[in-house]
Amino acid sequence: MKRIATIALLLAGAALLAGCPKKPTIVEPPTAGSQVGGSSTSGSANGASTNGSPLGGDADASSRGGVGADGSGPNSRKIIYFDFDKSEIKPEFASIVTSAAQNLTSHPTLKLKLEGNTDERGTREYNIGLGERRAQAVRRALLLQGAAETQISTVSFGAERPAAEGDDEAAWAQNRRVELVYLP
């Protein structure tokens, strides 16, 4: 009986470890003098082009707050960056929170996932907690501006999904973030 239980546990562990492969996320921080929440002629604030998206400019995307049926569009993904070891939203990112809250309140069927991330410094447990505090800070700000609790979910990845590789402040600054991901 012990042998069967051990084999079952090993198989379950192997299934968990196999999981889905990670997709690399490349995020560029805002440059000095640029508007974080605004759009440019070449794409959205995070650098992703909306011209190639089948739903980026159609009526469906605009009727859903700039988010297409498949989760694409100019407002499909926004990023809020944080200072080292902090979970307070910096004033320069208030416009992103306001825009997301307006999208959620005017489109009650939209769902938003807040993905908390940290840089590599700190223990795994501490970074998971810090990523969660960052995601919860954004969640609270959205709720205060009228978004419904049922529209927002949070997840913390800690340092597991770095936006930039490196052991310098420039890379760490890109990794200290919460990504606002509209779900299809």
Structural write-up:
The radius of gyration is 18 Å and the shape is flat. The relative contact order is 0.17. The termini are far apart. It is of the alpha+beta class and 184 residues long. The protein has helices at residues 2-18, 59-63, 94-106, 124-144, 169-175; strands at 77-81, 111-117, 152-158, 177-183. The protein has a four-stranded mixed sheet. It has a single domain (27-183), classed as 60s Ribosomal Protein L30, Chain: A (2-Layer Sandwich), CATH 3.30.1330.
Please give a quick description of this structure.
The protein has helices at 2-18, 59-63, 94-106, 124-144, 169-175, and strands spanning 77-81, 111-117, 152-158, 177-183. It is α+β, with helices and mostly antiparallel strands.
